Amino acid sequence: MNLKKTLLLCGIALMVCSMLGPVYASQPAQLTIADSIRLAITHSPALKAAKAETEKASWLVKENHSAYLPTLSANHLQAYNNPDTINYPSNYRSSSLEAKTILYSGGLTEGLVGQAKKLYTGAQHNVAYTKQQVITNTYLAYYNVLQAEKNVALADEAVQRLTQHLSIVQAQYSEGTVIKSDVLRTEVELAQAKQNHSKAKNTCRLASSQFATLLGLPADQNIALADIRETVAYDGSIDQAIQTALTQRSDFKQICQEEKAAQYGTQIAKSGYLPTVSLSIKKEWQNQDSVPNPWSTQLTVGFNLFDGSRTKSKIKQAEWEITKTHELLEQKREQITLETKEAYFNLQNARTALDIASQVVAKAEEDYAIAQVRYQSGLGTNLDVIDSQGALTSAKLNYTNARYDYNKYSVQLAQAMGTITEEDTHDKE
């Protein structure tokens, strides 16, 4: 009995721990860039909306295609007359079944189906473009968090260096080897460094909150991100980048489909000038013995003789719609070209900045070490140490920012070229 009670209590305890574990877990969620992209794609409301628009467009194709199929309708008439009439008895019933199909619509059905198909294809391209936008935003938010975390660490290093230097200055002041202004100046620099550290932490919190929201996680979710090494450089020319963008960009493909859809508009409008031909077969049943159950077949030809220039107005609207979509296509072409050039030049500039920044850090570290030794030996001034410390902090910040800026510009170029994918992590690892 005791054993059973013990096992039961253990089971309850394990259940409670499993329920409370996620709440009281102290370890942050570990995420890679691939994990982050999958979460962002799953959560993205914009992507869900684009997919919903695609489903809607697919049903528009089916709706317009249904005009090729016959329609079947049934009617029933129940009449009570008092007194009886010659045509209808006191209890008269009549039922009919009619099948009807359009043999020729003047190109209306073909135009509507063709237009709907182009819009559906365009909606599919919009899904692809929206997905690439989500991937791009995830990369940038991921890099922003890593960059902010690194800047917090560098700000903390600056505080630690100045704290250590302040202790040295205070010790020398106690011995009477330096004046009080050295202590005051160092305390001011330390206070400024602490303020910078506080700002860096706030920036990091904001970046983490934005990143978590992008992934559909709670804004205060504690997340640990795996670092990413320097991205693989794009080695093509700017002309190749632009050509790739005009070939691969899904938003450009979408507008191309919209232009083709607009061209079907004239066919749809001109159908108002053409005849329509329909065929119907009808069978009737009545409860009068004296009246046979008839059936009939009708071939109907309809032609619009005058519509008050309605068809002409529709044609003009369709023609101007073609002009509009063509101009929007050219505008998109110019926009993509400009975006690609901007991303390409930004990446080239970031590469240069990264190369320069990587060389400065080592020199700044050496300069700071020399300034410390000279000050402690009485050959240098407190201002030399403070200046060299500030230069070292700036050098490390510049290198960190240059590194992550280069990675972000690389992602932006891939997005501008339309080549960024879910599987591509832009990482050398």
TrEMBL record:
It is found in: Cell outer membrane. One of its GO terms (cellular component) is cell outer membrane. Pfam families: OEP (PF02321). Residues 1-25 form the signal peptide. InterPro entries: CyaE, OMP_efflux, TolC-like. Keywords: Cell outer membrane, Coiled coil, Membrane, Signal, Transmembrane, Transmembrane beta strand, Transport. GO terms for molecular function: efflux transmembrane transporter activity; porin activity. The keyword NAD does not apply. Residues 315-367 form a coiled coil. Belongs to the outer membrane factor (OMF) (TC 1.B.17) family. PANTHER family: OUTER MEMBRANE PROTEIN TOLC. This is Outer membrane protein TolC. It comes from Megasphaera paucivorans. The lineage of its organism: Bacteria, Bacillati, Bacillota, Negativicutes, Veillonellales.
